[in-house]
Design goal:
This protein has 122 residues and is an all-alpha fold. It has seven helices and no strands. Helix 2 packs across helix 3 and helix 2 crosses helix 5. The longest helix is centred in the N-terminal third of the chain and has 17 residues.
Length: 122
């Protein structure tokens, strides 16, 4: 009898859970005076959808992400290490808020941290 591998995507509750986390995540990011201006000219509905698709793919779910590369999307924003860390902190807080288990949160962080080299440009 074979056991299907449970992806992190499934473990945290699939697309519905990711949509909930992304909504809370952007509420936190847009409420952060240090970060909100990065999104002044951003269509946030489209941004939220891109983020849901990206996180779904990154966590082992369906690959429906069709956005730019991380480097291309962030190259002209002047994001610092501190900015990246603040955003990552908001992601962790949104995951905790949604009741995601600590082990799963650690796995999400492990999936996101390698992107830092492609996002930080200042």
């Amino acid at each position: 009898m074979s056991t299907a591998t449970i992806t992190l995507y499934d473990q945290i509750g699939g697309r519905t859970a990711i949509q909930t986390v992304v909504e809370e995540f952007y509420n936190r990011v847009l409420g952060d005076p240090k970060l909100k201006d990065f999104f002044n000219n951003t269509d946030m509905d489209k941004q939220r959808q891109h983020q849901v698709n990206f996180l779904s793919m990154a966590l082992g779910g369906p690959n429906q992400y069709t956005g730019r590369t991380m480097q291309s999307a962030h190259s002209d924003l002047g994001i610092t290490n501190s900015d990246f860390d603040a955003v990552a902190g908001h992601l962790v807080a949104a995951l905790e808020w949604a009741g995601v288990e600590k082990e799963a949160i650690s796995a999400v962080v492990d999936a996101v941290v390698p992107l830092k080299a492609h996002i930080v440009t200042a």
